[in-house]
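Cont'd.
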Amino acid sequence: MATTTATLEPSGPAPGAPGAARSAFGRSPALRMIGRRLLLAIPVVWGTTLLTFCLMNLLPGTAATALLGDSATPQEVALLNHKLGLDQPFLTRYFDWLGHAVQGDLGTSLASGQSVTGLVLQRLEVSAELIVFAYLIALAAAAGVATLAARKPGGVADWISVTLSTAGLSVPPFVISLVLVFVFAVKLKLVPPLGFVPLGTNLGWNLRTLILPAVSLALGIFAVLNRMLRADLIDQLQGEDYVTTARAKGASPWRVLLRHALRNSMFGLLTVAGLQIGVLLGTTVVVEQIFSVPGVGQQLLSAIQNEDVPVVEGIVTVIATITVLANLIADVLYAVLDPRIRHDSASS
Amino acid sequence: MTASDAVPAAASAGGAALLEVRDLSVTFASDRGPARVVHKLSYSVGHAETLAIIGESGSGKTVSSRAVMGLLPRTAKVSGSIRLNGKEVIGLAEDQMRRHRGRDVSMVFQDPARSLNPTMKIGEQVAEAIRLQSPVAKRQARQQAVELLGRVRLPSPERRFHEYPHQLSGGMRQRVMIAIALAGSPKLLIADEATTALDVTTQAQIMDLLLDLQEQYRMGLILISHDMGLAASYAQTVMVMYAGQAVERAPVRQLFTGVRMPYTRVLLDAVPRLDLPPHSPLPVVSLRAPDLTRTAPGCAFAPRCPRCADDCRQQDPVLEEHENEHAWACFHPEEPPARQADDPGRPEKTVRQGEATVREVHQ
Amino acid sequence: MTVQAPEQPAQPGSLPAAVAPPSRAVSPLKTWLRRRDLDLWIPGVVLGALLIGCFIVPLTGVVPDPMAGDLTQTLRPPFSPGHILGTDTIGRDVMSRILYGGRTSIEVGLAVNVIGVVAGGFIGMFAGFRRGIVDSLIMRVLDVMLAFPALILTIVVATYLGASMLNVIWAISFFSIPAYARLSRAVTLKLREQVYIDAARMSGRGDWAILRQHIAPNVLPQLATYSLLQVGIVVMIEATLSFLGAGEGPSQASWGNMIATGQTYLSTNPALVLVPSAFLFVTVVCLNLLGDGLRSRYGRSV
């Protein structure tokens, strides 16, 4: 929210007496909502870990079999099982894990012996960059296309908007990825079809290796954001009185669109964008696999193959936590940014 | 504060009127054919003059004023002539029309709660209006905005500058709207039901403010309302609209002392009066809204008119000036009264020039 | 205050309702299509053709065995003699694999949504009708389930449960139930207000009977409309899962599978990826269009 820095007021700072504002906020529905969501977040994360643990352990075969291969004898398997602590009862193992997890220790990988926390964090950096990149592309594209579409419904921009949105909603990300690879990497040879160059090594190559995966991710989000934004903008332009006021002031149609309508839509846009994180993380798994991006998603898939329980648990826990927190922040941000809630004190 | 006793309806005043509307027609497409929301409307407003346009919802009063501002949706078909300061406004491209808005003509809308952007500080909205009218730096615009807020009598304007619309009361929001409308020192101000959403006391305050500002800025003022009492108290000329047409127009005193068009009578009778015994039923005409898609000839008010006769249903009455500056569109107008003011059958508001207005509470 | 001359629904100061400009964010093309019901017919016909192709045509024996590979005919491009869409890496006919793969996608899509409608619908109705503690409890559980990062968990679950269509169905269903339950509960809550009075009058009628006879028939259409939009999503999820290897085994025909194996030949034989992708795209688009069209007509009252 752009705030004015006009110092027209000789004394004192923010609007409304700070004391009054604080107590109003303290009783405000916003804070209560935050509290409620936080409370909800805990069972979600916990439930996720439990569910995953159950799955990983209720199935035939263990990490031992995966590690030793098909030719292993039952004794060898049993020995490794014992060594890895896999022959203990289910609940013991779960609560053991849980106890460590809440302290930040997610155990050690069965395959490599490394600390899961360390492994995950390492990979998380890469995935985070990819996701942020994807979000930026999606937001910028959605804002741009929706604005142009709202300016002239039925025009060229609107067509592009509808087509891209349909594609984003109807084509699974892995197909998008492959099509993009086909067009840009195979045919046009603009970017490498897979691989990854870390940010620190070379920015240019880093971006080139990430652009296709980021766009694959972005398309789905773009579709949702664009649809919502376009509808919201048009609704405002056609239905809201303050739009008429702005026009009556002598504002140009672009100014009305950008300074009034788009600005008002921003809250909703960011909220919806934040709520997409759950889907986005899932999609990242697929996309990383296709493009061989060494992120958390790829790690998850190989850990599942290897039946590397701690790693799977660790990743799923981290992802669940991120999802829940992102949803929480998105919801809360909306409430906090809306000046109608922020400045609760109705004065007269 | 009385309406200034200045120039009568400008057409006869010679020289260019501030606003001249001739044969304005606005048609919208509807499911049942084209709807003539405004039909051959003609009127004019001079500098520093106050015209009240009175009518029900759907009478076309709002649409006609939006036409003056060029704020009608693209689906509207507009014909006729609207001359603002001598310049034709109908048919202008959007960017040309924009130059008139705020500078030549400005509008104050009905519902300030919805007419102000809820996520923008009110001061910024005023400053925006200022900067849209003249190339002023941001800082200066804000200073001017505070001044302007002061001029519309908003208490503590420096503090209020930073507040949001929902933090202000209805009356204060309307003052902000007025400030926005005045940012470009317009020559003509249209107040479209500007006080309808306010309580009685606030209404009076806002109206006083408007009239003071009119004097200060020497603006033409158009008051659009359904409230006859408002017209009586504040206007010099009153024009009554029905079904998109002007059906009666006269200087205020003449209108109230000599109502002719039966529809105007209906509007007057609907005003509650203190001198009637309590619980008296208000005379209300039985109702159906006029069909704006109708193309058959005949007076639009005929189905509801107590004085309707056969010729009313066959021919279109035309707004004609019959007496000095008093025009009506009716084949069977009411008889003018033999006497003046003290007839209890007529709610009256006499504008005593030079004296403080005794405001009979019609509201 | 003055008495407003009556009967106009519009607010003073705004354009009269009858002549306000037509509604909002719908493009003129959509309106044109909608008026002629084309927005239902076009996707409907395409989907119909697909259904026929996937379920009926194979019965006629015209289609070669999707699993039988002819190693002398590997990697033939589309429009080759005898193989209208070419062959894959071990000589299997692509067209037939498309048709059988379509079967998989559609079956999973339908199955998941049927389970969702039935299970979710029932849970929601039950919660909405009973209210009280039962309702609160169920709602909490649903909220938690809705907050799960579903796609991730579906991948984990499906991969783990092993490669089979049934497992995929269970995995996806599990996460689609909460949404249906919520919708069904909302509708039930609304209906409850109306029906309850009747129910009280019909003394002696058990709750179950009321649910069955009055509430369910009204909840069902809402759920059905919603499910149409969901089928497309489920088809995409199924494709993603089989792409990752979580679905049926690679020998079974499934669009996701085909794309996965075709990946390595993207530069030489792009058709192996593009053909199933195109079918996938068209199917989902038609499902979405159909869902949109039906929803705009028989809209949601909730």
